[in-house]
Design a protein that fits this description.
Pfam families: CorA (PF01544). Belongs to the CorA metal ion transporter (MIT) (TC 1.A.35) family. It catalyses: Mg(2+)(in) = Mg(2+)(out). The chain is 59% helix and 14% strand. It has a 7-stranded mixed sheet, with helices on both faces. A hairpin with a 2-residue loop joins strand 1 and strand 2. Helix 7 runs antiparallel to helix 8.
Length: 323
């Protein structure tokens, strides 16, 4: 666990706070953020539920993984469940992690599956004594966490867009061999983001309409802004999905063209050899009386006929621009 207490004239952070320290902050006037990065510890969760009076249903939602993003109101807090998507290798693989946020009067609690997160920018902003985050309430801080998660969706989408453009250029220029699996991997990533962003948009839509004392009116414009961001991401996802479809069509067309080129080459070769095969078949018959068999120059004349027929056919094909 990590706890950060903050206010206009207060900032300090501490690792592994005990229950008494948390209760002292809870009873005070300052705001604080408690970040929990191990949700498998049932004893810890139970202890926190007693300190913050977390409802058993909310506790079950925190423990259960891969839930659909949602927002729920309780007596003295609001529970927000979102999916944090991020990449550790420049968009090649997308990892998903559930983040549960509890918004209270003077506190925000985040529950994560692993210590890795994308909230470093939030921590930096908290250190600024003149920043908006230190002055506004916990509802604004909860918005800032959601905004950081949505911004990461943007980065993932940009990485996918760049990779789609690279694949398209590679297919058209043929500077490297592109596999169909590479294209479908990008499609899978788009579906993964879309599966998360749609319910996130619904979550923010509900948040905009909440009439809860924990949500101040001055925070509404910020929530509306992040809602518009999710709408924009969804529109971009639809565009990228169409790009993937177009890319598959280009890929299949390119394969068809290559196959046609191969078939054309083989057909031309087979066509050239058809008359040669015919002549070889005629003179390969085992008849006793064939005039050309006993002729001194018959063998060389046969080769001359073969070469002449091949040359004439090649010249004819070239004139027709068949190759």
């Amino acid at each position: 666990m990590e706890i950060i207490a903050f206010g206009e004239h207060l900032f300090y952070k501490q690792s592994q706070p005990n229950a008494e320290e948390i209760k002292t902050l809870l009873e005070g006037d300052h705001k604080f953020w408690l970040n929990v990065t191990e949700t498998k510890d049932s004893a810890l969760l139970q202890e926190l539920s007693e300190v913050f009076d977390i409802h058993s249903m909310a506790l079950n939602d925190i423990k259960e993984k891969r839930q659909r993003p949602k927002i729920e109101e309780y007596n003295h807090f609001i529970l927000i469940v979102v999916q944090m998507l991020y990449s550790k290798n420049h968009g090649l693989d997308i990892e998903s992690e559930q983040v549960s946020i509890i918004l209270g009067k003077n506190y925000v609690i985040t529950f994560q599956e692993t210590p890795f997160d994308i909230f470093d920018q939030i921590r930096v902003r908290l250190e600024n004594p003149h920043g908006r985050m230190r002055k506004l309430g916990t509802d604004y801080f909860a918005y800032a966490l959601i905004d950081a998660i949505v911004d990461e969706y943007y980065l993932l989408l940009e990485n996918i867009t760049d990779r789609i453009e690279i694949l398209e250029d590679s297919i058209i220029s043929q500077d490297r061999k592109v596999r169909l699996s590479e294209i479908y991997h990008q499609r899978k990533y788009i579906q993964q983001i879309k599966k998360v962003i749609w319910p996130t948009r619904e979550l923010l839509s509900i948040w905009r309409k909440l009439e809860n004392p924990l949500i101040k009116k001055r925070t509404s414009p910020f929530i509306n802004d992040v809602y518009e961001q999710t709408v924009e991401i969804i529109e971009n996802l639809e565009m990228q999905r169409e790009s993937i479809t177009t890319l598959v069509e280009i890929f299949m067309t390119d394969i068809s063209l290559k196959q046609n080129e191969v078939m054309k080459t083989l057909t031309i070769i087979a066509t050239i050899f058809i008359p040669l095969t015919f002549l070889a078949g005629v003179y390969g018959m085992n008849f006793e009386f064939m005039p050309e068999l006993s002729w001194k120059y018959g063998y060389w004349l046969t080769w001359l006929v073969f070469i002449g027929i091949s040359a004439i056919m090649v010249f004819y094909f070239k004139r027709k621009k068949w190759f």
